[in-house]
Design goal:
With 543 residues, the protein is α+β, with helices and mostly antiparallel strands. Helix content is 48%, strand content 21%. It contains eleven helices and 17 strands. The strands form four sheets. Strands 1-2-3-4-5 form a five-stranded antiparallel β-sheet, with helices on both faces. A hairpin with a 3-residue loop joins strand 16 (520-526) and strand 17. Helix 7 (352-384) runs parallel beside helix 11 (506-516). The longest helix has 53 residues, at 12-64.
């Protein structure tokens, strides 16, 4: 397909611009159709008004032999004549059928009606304020010849437009017509006229060149009066309107394409910035962020979320690099010791004792590496929830009391005092007993390692609302405020030289276990004044 050679045709911006253009065009066409319909209806209505007035003028003269009296205008619909007039007529002339009605233009209460009762023709002058009637019988004489002569003279109408006036007898034979082009006569004579009711009918027929709007009705004696008005001028006006609208619509469509493109380009400029930034980030530069613009709230939300995602990615990549370096360092040391031990053993005296000592040293280093790896796996599994917790109901106070006793000997060997402030009554909690025990064990182990001789370690437990607060406080070296946000990261050590024991995973495991149980860990510390780690564990009242 040819459009495959033009990539911009497949862009969302082009599709939006095309959609805008099509929408504008459809809207324009809808407006055009509505305007065209109303213009055509107005043209028909104007022609009908003119034909109606002319029809009443001819019919009045046909019935009375004289032109309509001044100061009266025809009533187009006979049902618009007040009902009291018809009731009064029915009381005086039963069976009266109205044919024609006029109303005073100045005195709106006056009406003149023409109608038949049997074979007689009557004229009724009525006044509704108060109701008065004057009934006169009309001595009807044959006037067809006179009307036909008047039609031939084109004596009716304003003479400003081509008029088509015909008078046909009850058999459809032509009695008289106005002097219009003879080629139009067959179109008028061959039309199927409906005369099933006494009302004036309006229709549109196609003439030899132009459309003709006609009005017709059977007269009193069965003759058919047909009046027509040429619609050429009205049709030409409509054609000019159509041409103007079509050209304007085409121009609107052409203009809406670039306008829609500019609007779409403006709206998607933020998305383009995100795409460009994503490509730069994919090349390894995680420091780049997308600048905010004025494209709209949705694009601003996208940019904010994207920048937040990149921030987290940059932190994760930095932590990954740090963790990789720390793992390499922590594994390199035991591997180096194992290699040195093996080389020394092979270089020295080849005895069974030397081999045994080398193997024992290497086994110890392997255990330390295995412990490191297992701790990392446990943290990952606990954080991800891939290994479900073995929930059971146990007494946290008793668990802490047992943990304190386990570390009491190590504390005394380091010259530390270990105190426990635990409640006498049981404090039940539903959780994984072994993981919670390891959590407290890691906190106590850190306190023993980083508290100098003569210091004090205090373990406390209390209930606050629906939470158990277990704390381990020491009087050790403490942690600077600038480093407190990093202590729960894997392999992080405040001692960058790594001369102190440990691998930097203990507090990471503590936080992972607390989060797995729906709790949290908070640190309070000041440099050279010690630390207090507080574990918050939510208690389920239903257990």
């Amino acid at each position: 397909m040819f459009w495959n050679r033009y990539p911009f045709l497949h862009t969302v911006k082009f599709k939006i611009a095309l959609g805008y253009a099509v929408l504008f065009l459809i809207s324009f066409l809808c407006v055009f159709c509505v305007v065209l319909f109303h213009l055509a209806a107005d043209n028909r209505y104007a022609a009908d008004l003119r034909l109606n007035a002319l029809f009443h003028e001819i019919e009045y003269e046909y019935l009375t032999g004289m032109e309509p009296a001044p100061g009266f205008s025809p009533v187009r619909r006979l049902d618009k004549v007040p009902e009291p007039i018809y009731r009064e007529i029915a009381g005086r002339q039963a069976g009266f059928i109205p044919l024609l009605a006029f109303r005073g233009t100045e005195d709106r209460a006056k009406y003149t009606l023409f109608g038949k009762n049997g074979r007689s023709l009557f004229r009724i002058d009525a006044d509704t304020d108060p109701l008065e009637l004057s009934i006169q019988k009309i001595d009807f004489r044959e006037r067809s010849a006179a009307i036909a002569a008047r039609l031939a003279e084109d004596a009716f109408g304003d003479g400003g437009k081509p008029d088509y006036h015909l008078l046909l007898d009850s058999s459809g034979n032509l009695l008289g017509r106005s002097p219009f082009q003879s080629g139009e006569l067959p179109y008028l004579m061959n039309h199927q006229y409906r005369s099933d009711s006494g009302r004036i009918r309006y229709e549109t027929i196609q003439g030899i060149r132009h459309r003709i709007r006609i009005a017709y009705r059977r007269l009193f004696n069965g003759e058919l009066l047909v009046l027509g008005a040429d619609m050429h001028a009205a049709d030409e006006t409509l054609e000019r309107v159509v041409v103007t609208f079509l050209w304007t619509g085409f121009a609107v469509f052409l203009i809406s394409l670039p306008v829609g493109w500019l609007l779409a380009r403006k709206m998607f400029s933020g998305v383009d910035r995100v795409a460009r930034t994503a490509r730069q980030i994919a090349s390894g530069n995680y420091s780049i962020r997308v600048a905010h613009g004025q494209e709209g709230q949705e694009v601003e939300n996208l940019i904010t979320d994207f920048n937040f995602m990149v921030d987290n990615t940059e932190k994760l990549m930095t932590e990954l690099k740090t963790i990789s370096d720390d793992i390499a360092h922590d594994l390199r040391t035991p591997l180096t010791r194992m290699l040195s031990c093996a080389e020394v053993t092979f270089a020295g005296k080849q005895t069974i004792g030397a081999y045994r000592n080398a193997m024992a040293d290497n086994a110890g280093e392997c255990r330390r590496m295995l412990t490191l790896i297992n701790t990392m796996l446990e943290i990952s599994r606990t954080e991800s929830g891939t290994v479900p917790l073995k929930l059971e109901r146990f007494d946290v106070a008793e668990l802490l009391r047992h943990s304190v006793e386990l570390f009491r000997m190590a504390a005394e060997q380091n010259g530390l005092s270990l105190a426990a402030e635990l409640p006498a009554e049981p404090q039940f909690f539903r959780g994984d007993r072994l993981k919670i025990q390891r959590l407290f064990g890691n906190l106590l182990d850190n306190a023993v390692k980083f508290t100098p001789s003569g210091g004090k370690i205090t373990v406390a437990l209390r209930r606050s609302g629906n939470e158990l607060l277990a704390s381990v406080a020491d009087t050790g070296c403490g942690i600077a405020k600038t480093e407190q946000g990093n202590v729960f990261k894997r392999f992080y050590r405040a001692d960058t030289s790594r001369n102190r024991p440990g691998n930097g995973l203990g507090l990471s495991l503590v936080q992972a276990v607390a989060h797995a149980h729906g709790g949290r860990v908070e640190l309070e510390s000041a440099l050279r004044k010690g630390c207090r780690f507080t574990v918050f564990l939510p208690v389920d009242e239903s257990i």
